[in-house]
Amino acid sequence: MPRGEGPPGRSDPARHLLRVAVGERGDPVADRGTARPPRRPTAPDGLLIVDKPAGWTSHDVVGRCRRLAGTRKVGHAGTLDPMATGVLVVGVGRATKLLTYVVGADKAYRATIRLGVSTTTDDAEGETLEARGVGEGVDPAALGRQVAALTGDIRQVPSTVSAIKVDGRRAYARARAGEEVELADRPVTVSSFEVLESRPATADDGVAVLDVDVEVVVSSGTYVRALARDLGEALGVGGHLTALRRTRVGGYPLDRARTLEELEAQADADGVLATLPLGDAARSTFPVRELTDAEARALGYGQWVTPTGMRGTVAGLAPDGTLVALLEDTTRRGERRAKPVLVLAPA
């Protein structure tokens, strides 16, 4: 998925739009590679909602969280490219088993699209392909029409530097090796695509461009970089992404996220890295079935219980709020029942 000056204070989400400026943060690699003695496990199973900084890969963030949590059983749900900032959901311990469900949730972003210049990567990290400029500007009515055309259920060709595999190799690896990469279009959903503000600007080569701040809500697998590219092409001027901040993943908004510095300070102060407990994480991810003690015990043994009456995967919570199992209704021997598809609190 979509990927520098560090983000400013989080009180104003609009100010978080990343402005690409190579070297302004210094070298983040030196920071994340700092050698420290390994910690013993100091985090309960649960989720961390991280505000990823610019210049870090999602794997870098996982590495830092592993050190803070004192365990290698840490993973993330939904990659953010290095240039992007914002919500990265990280699982610790048994919570890693929930990440498969979190990664499929819809996602919200604030972004800046530069109209008038197209690049090899559809973002500001690539080389300029064409600098057509916007001349006297872009007609607001035409901009609105093309934004509307890219809203709803659409077909999208992913960026060539995506992580999609082509004959066993990542597309970005093939592209960086100089190979021609052709990716098939695929269905995605753009639930919302709103223009917040637009302003004339000048590119580094002196070409007149238009920077457009947008807010989008998209299905999993949608590339915001590709939306920027396609909007520019539809307007006949080209376009690419210059800023990206993820403001929500499913039920996890940005205001619940903590920076890596905040996580480290809290872990150092308390001796335990605070995570979002499994039960609370389940309530933010799934519909919930409140279980009786008998049902919780039965599910802990892997037994089936009365149906939930809900579609899809449902979280079964014990009376004390513990996440016991994930359930799905199914028919067994002509009888509708709920089966545990994942038991997290075995009896």
TrEMBL record:
It is an enzyme of class 5 (isomerase). Residues 22-34 have a biased composition (Basic and acidic residues). GO terms for biological process: mRNA pseudouridine synthesis; tRNA pseudouridine synthesis. It comes from the Bacteria. Coiled coil: none annotated. Pfam families: TruB_C, TruB_C_2, TruB_N. One of its GO terms (molecular function) is RNA binding. InterPro entries: PsdUridine_synth_cat_dom_sf, PsdUridine_synth_N, PUA-like_sf, PUA_sf, tRNA_psdUridine_synth_fam2_C, tRNA_psdUridine_synth_TruB, TruB_C. Residues 225-265 form the tRNA pseudouridylate synthase B C-terminal domain. It catalyses: uridine(55) in tRNA = pseudouridine(55) in tRNA. The active site is at 81 (nucleophile). Residues 286-344 form the tRNA pseudouridine synthase II TruB subfamily 2 C-terminal domain. Belongs to the pseudouridine synthase TruB family. Type 1 subfamily. Responsible for synthesis of pseudouridine from uracil-55 in the psi GC loop of transfer RNAs. PANTHER family: PSEUDOURIDYLATE SYNTHASE TRUB1, TRNA-PSEUDOURIDINE SYNTHASE. This is tRNA pseudouridine synthase B. It comes from Isoptericola sediminis. The gene is truB.
